[in-house]
Amino acid sequence: MSDLLIELFSEEIPARMQAKAADDLRRLMTDGMVEAGLTYAGAAAFATPRRLTLAVEGLTTESPTLREERKGPRTDAPEKALAGFLRSTGLTKEQLEVRDDKKGQVYFAVVEKPGRAAADIVAEVLEKAIRTFPWPKSMRWGTGTLRWVRPLHSILAILSDEEGAQVVPLDVDGIASGDTTHGHRFMAPDVIKVTSFEDYAAKLKRAFVILDPQERADLIHAEATNMAFAQGLEIVEDKGLLAEVAGLVEWPVPLMGPIGEQFLELPPEVLQTSMKEHQKFFSVRDPATGKIVKYVTVANRQTTDNGATILAGNSKVLTARLSDAKFFWENDLQTVRERGLEGMAAPLANVTFHNKLGSQAERIERIAALAREIAPLVGADADMAEQAAKIAKADLSSEMVYEFPELQGLMGRYYAEAAGLPQPVANAAQLHYSPLGPSDDVPTEPVSVAVALADKLDTLTGFWAIDEKPTGSKDPYALRRAALGVIRLVLGSEVRTDLSEVLLTHGREILAIKSKLDSAYEAEVIAGAAQEKLLEAQTEVLATASGANKEKLKQIAVNLSAQYNDAQQNHSLLLNKANEASQSACCIPPLLLEFFADRLKVHLRGEGIRHDVIDAALPENWDGDIVLLVNRVRALQSFLDTEDGANLLAAYTRASNIVKAEEGKDGVEYSLDPNPDLAENDSEKALFAALDAADPQIDAALKAEDFAAAMGAIAALRSSLDTYFEATLINSENQIIRRNRLCLLNRIRNLFARIADFAKLDG
Amino acid sequence: MTAHLATDRPRSFQEIILRLQSYWAGKGCAIMQPYDMEVGAGTFHPATTLRSLGSNHWAAAYVQPSRRPTDGRYGENPNRLQHYYQYQVLIKPSPPNLQDLYLGSLRAIGIDMDLHDIRFVEDDWESPTLGAWGLGWEVWCDGMEVSQFTYFQQVGGHDCKPVSGELTYGLERLAMYVLGVDHVMDMPYNDPDAMIPLSYGDVFKQTEQEYSRWNFDIADTDVLLRHFEEAEAECARILDAADDDPKTGQRIVMAHPAYDQCIKASHIFNLLDARGVISVTERQAYIGRVRTLAKACADAFVRTTAGGFAA
């Protein structure tokens, strides 16, 4: 057994690529070595800005010898056959063995593939890994053709055991492997010779390099937290930033610095975003006030002045950056003061939302109308919902959001508050984008819910209207997320609504049928007026004119007539267009509802609800009432989870299969009401009685939308059904009895169908 | 090293430039002079754009006055100018120790590596107008970007073989940092103890005002639009000419004169942009037109001797 250490030392690797690269190196090497016949006990990979490192423990020293036997031709076979066999095995006749076989003496070739030394295999696999490494972006440098993320400088590759360490010989485009590396770029740049992973990690640490990114991140987090705590402050947690910063340094030294007084009035999120985006600083908060008061930057080195120069430089850059942010903030507030939020939103009339769906301003108008319509359903004040929708996107034309797009919504809330708008309206500016992902909170304040729903429904209807639906992995407008958002908003606020109606109305709106109808109507009026004028003119001409004048006037009449025809044609064209649009508007709701149903399946999968249960519970012409559907689905799922449920499903399937089979055979439908008087045995009579009892119960339960009760009523049928099937032969010799029994089974089938389409359930 | 810091620090803007010049000259670069045309960045100098093409080796360093009309602030903004200087180094093929050479240049202008935090932060460079891109970093000194460091992969649509290493220093910003100045106009241009000490403002405040006004409000857009089209047409016409010159009987491909027209078109586009007469959609179209010229010039250059063409 030996241990393998590999280090690929390069110029600075982008932070965002390091973790995956370390993992890729581990995967490519271990897969390749195992494929070549080696085994190992464990492997770990690490990355710093300048190196990818892999440590493999307990690697076998060589791959096993492989012995292969091949049967050749009989010894008395023609020379040609033997020659072919020798060629294919690469052996001479003398090297073959002659063995006795059933059919006589036969040549055998025994080929031994000797095992290969680990070093040879490692060298081969490593070279291939380097040449085919899956960097997201790679480059060439100097005169070479080798590609790496940035110039690759050295390859350290050693196999070590109790005897010592040996370099795995390897040369990739002039970069020869060795047993040396370098420490920190500035603090310990000299060559370091290593003999094992432990030796390597320890020597690197002495040379100011912490190899393990997790260790660097932990260190940054601990020191930053301590420094803040010592001053009664706290770090604003940011895991993504922590990982990124840990990828920018080999020797992390957190330093805490002040934020100029003049910036402390900026919203904390603005400070945080500006510092994070531009400078990769952590924000430090005063827990008493919630304000960001300091920052932590992470330097890549210690200095004799304990970071004073570094901190001074960083503070200076921060001041310049925050001056910009303050400038944007003050300009935006001035706009709000002078022109209000609607004034701030005015430029959105010139911003295209989508070239087929008009400008942002037009979209906002539609959302406002829709929010107003939805408001009563979610218990929101209609005026407030409309007002909120009108200003919710105003911040998209603020300077701050132009600079920091990720602050959209949040700045809207600040600016709405500054404008003195009611708090629910201001909150909606921020919350109407929610929920953004499956883990994002769903707004509950009615005004926010109304605008959030209107926003998403407008997006969905719009893109369905122009036929830009998500396909496969492509969903550039995040329509799946929008649909999931609608589902979660509806379920969160228990909105009972016929979505299809809302979608249809809104679809019509979007397709601007109204305006097209209007123009068609206008054209008709114009055509009508033209016709009247024409008739008048004709009469007048014929009555008054004579000679040449008459000819000239006739010509004018002909021209007018042509114009009239044009107008009429135009009219029918517009009418056609309007009809077409009206028809496509009608297509939107069913297609979109299907999409919602699909999204619902994904959403409910988390609760352990199966796809087929949703399919079964989905009515044929679903109206889009998500709350009702989900209640039905949940009741059905819990019913199926009981023993009664599973058993009844089996009974249903049996009844349904028999009816289907017999209907198929006889070519008729057994859909008549079964006659209880034809019941022959007690179990049959009992089943009739049970069905008669269940019917009104199910009616009442469905009316009350109490699906659990409806399922309970069905569950009560279990024993009657079981007994019936045990005691009764459906296909009786007596045709009248047989038909009646088939109709009885059909009645059972229909009863089940009132609750769900049980045929769609898997087994 | 810390000990001589006090005396080792440059005292003026021009001293930083002189030190960079002598440093890179000492490393074997040909010190070129600025290109005598209006350009947006040092990369446009033919010593970079054209010389990064083809197989011939090359090493050049130079100051390039650069103009970005939209960045004009009438000399009021502490660090934004419509006319500023870039220091540009291009070495082909990129030497293996280019990072060390670069760090040496920072030491040469008085940045003490023992006190400062230098970082190479991912920043991939792309010039849509030149049809060029490369991978590299922006170099941070204590959180401030002081240079761009790029390994050219493609220029004018051609793969760079060998690859050039390009360094670009924003001179004003770098100098302000080294000299500890907060407003560019306050920066000493020559030595503060000179017979007649001049600040950056003494030299450039007025021109910033004049050009800001002209760029934003006065430049005749009709004339500019016409010049753009003329430059575009002239570039194509030059490249259409036969390789063989009937007068001298020599093969003379006119890559450089054609490229001048490309530079001209590019700068006129920047001026039109500053005048606000180019819409978002037109913008892409104009950039595409300049790129077409750049590519045609690159195609021509690789057919010249300097571009590695062997008859």
TrEMBL record, chain A:
<comment type="similarity">
    <text>Belongs to the class-II aminoacyl-tRNA synthetase family.</text>
</comment>
<feature type="domain" description="DALR anticodon binding">
    <location>
        <begin position="649"/>
        <end position="754"/>
    </location>
</feature>
<dbReference type="InterPro" id="IPR015944">
    <property type="entry name" value="Gly-tRNA-synth_bsu"/>
</dbReference>
<dbReference type="GO" id="GO:0006426">
    <property type="term" value="P:glycyl-tRNA aminoacylation"/>
</dbReference>
<dbReference type="InterPro" id="IPR006194">
    <property type="entry name" value="Gly-tRNA-synth_heterodimer"/>
</dbReference>
<comment type="subunit">
    <text>Tetramer of two alpha and two beta subunits.</text>
</comment>
<dbReference type="GO" id="GO:0005829">
    <property type="term" value="C:cytosol"/>
</dbReference>
<keyword id="KW-0030">Aminoacyl-tRNA synthetase</keyword>
<keyword id="KW-0963">Cytoplasm</keyword>
<dbReference type="InterPro" id="IPR008909">
    <property type="entry name" value="DALR_anticod-bd"/>
</dbReference>
<keyword id="KW-0067">ATP-binding</keyword>
<dbReference type="Pfam" id="PF05746">
    <property type="entry name" value="DALR_1"/>
</dbReference>
<keyword id="KW-0436">Ligase</keyword>
<dbReference type="GO" id="GO:0005524">
    <property type="term" value="F:ATP binding"/>
</dbReference>
<dbReference type="Pfam" id="PF02092">
    <property type="entry name" value="tRNA_synt_2f"/>
</dbReference>
<dbReference type="GO" id="GO:0006420">
    <property type="term" value="P:arginyl-tRNA aminoacylation"/>
</dbReference>
<dbReference type="GO" id="GO:0004820">
    <property type="term" value="F:glycine-tRNA ligase activity"/>
</dbReference>
<dbReference type="GO" id="GO:0004814">
    <property type="term" value="F:arginine-tRNA ligase activity"/>
</dbReference>
<keyword id="KW-0547">Nucleotide-binding</keyword>
<protein>
    <recommendedName>
        <fullName>Glycine--tRNA ligase beta subunit</fullName>
        <ecNumber>6.1.1.14</ecNumber>
    </recommendedName>
</protein>
<keyword id="KW-0648">Protein biosynthesis</keyword>
Automatic annotation (TrEMBL), chain B:
<dbReference type="GO" id="GO:0005524">
    <property type="term" value="F:ATP binding"/>
</dbReference>
<dbReference type="GO" id="GO:0005829">
    <property type="term" value="C:cytosol"/>
</dbReference>
<keyword id="KW-0067">ATP-binding</keyword>
<dbReference type="Pfam" id="PF02091">
    <property type="entry name" value="tRNA-synt_2e"/>
</dbReference>
<dbReference type="GO" id="GO:0004820">
    <property type="term" value="F:glycine-tRNA ligase activity"/>
</dbReference>
<keyword id="KW-0436">Ligase</keyword>
<keyword id="KW-0963">Cytoplasm</keyword>
<protein>
    <recommendedName>
        <fullName>Glycine--tRNA ligase alpha subunit</fullName>
        <ecNumber>6.1.1.14</ecNumber>
    </recommendedName>
</protein>
<keyword id="KW-0030">Aminoacyl-tRNA synthetase</keyword>
<dbReference type="InterPro" id="IPR002310">
    <property type="entry name" value="Gly-tRNA_ligase_asu"/>
</dbReference>
<keyword id="KW-0547">Nucleotide-binding</keyword>
<dbReference type="InterPro" id="IPR006194">
    <property type="entry name" value="Gly-tRNA-synth_heterodimer"/>
</dbReference>
<dbReference type="InterPro" id="IPR045864">
    <property type="entry name" value="aa-tRNA-synth_II/BPL/LPL"/>
</dbReference>
<comment type="similarity">
    <text>Belongs to the class-II aminoacyl-tRNA synthetase family.</text>
</comment>
<dbReference type="GO" id="GO:0006426">
    <property type="term" value="P:glycyl-tRNA aminoacylation"/>
</dbReference>
<comment type="subunit">
    <text>Tetramer of two alpha and two beta subunits.</text>
</comment>
<keyword id="KW-0648">Protein biosynthesis</keyword>
